[in-house]
Write a structure and sequence with these properties.
The structure is a single chain. The radius of gyration is 28 Å and the shape is rod-shaped. With 141 residues, it is of the alpha+beta class. Strands 4-3-2-1-5 form a five-stranded antiparallel β-sheet, with no helix packed on it. 4% of the residues are buried. It is 38% helix and 23% strand. The termini are far apart. The longest helix has 40 residues, at 49-88. Helix 1 (27-39) runs antiparallel to helix 2 (49-88). The protein is built from two helices and five strands.
Length: 141
């Protein structure tokens, strides 16, 4: 009979904005538990090979699933940006109206739409106007 040390981990709140709340065990927690089990096992009845291999397989699966989830999140963000940019491309050829920093109303034909540093811009008369500054868009000439 194997006697393994029981370990417990608790959810912690961090001041790091990326990890404000830790609700699930991650791969680091799994490794910590695994190492604790190895340190505290009965030397006369160590973990059997099949148990060791099963736990390593679980760790490998956990790591692969985590990597896939991260890649899927990146793909989802990319598709969202492309979808928004695709929708905004309907503005090309239309007349955009906006106010400059002095409050003067300007207008011109939207010739392209682009994204820079996470913000969307309409190119109007060689100027890059943030989309949020457009207060009116009308059909082109």
């Amino acid at each position: 009979m194997n006697t393994l040390a029981t370990t417990s981990t608790t959810a912690t709140t961090s001041t790091n904005p990326q990890n404000e709340k830790k609700d699930i065990l991650g791969k680091d927690d799994f490794l910590r538990i695994f190492i604790t089990q190895l340190k505290n096992q009965d030397p006369l009845q160590p973990l059997e090979d099949k148990d060791f291999i099963a736990q390593m397989a679980q760790f490998s699966s956990l790591e692969q699933i985590t990597n896939m989830a991260n890649e899927m999140a990146g793909i989802n963000q990319f598709l969202s940006q492309q979808n928004s940019l695709g929708s905004l491309s309907n503005l090309i050829g239309k007349i955009g109206h906006w106010k400059n920093d002095e409050g003067t109303e300007l207008s011109g034909e939207i010739t392209s739409v682009l994204m820079k540093a996470g913000e969307y811009y309409a190119t109007i008369d060689s100027q890059e106007v943030p989309i949020y500054q457009l207060f009116q868009v009308e059909s082109g000439v």
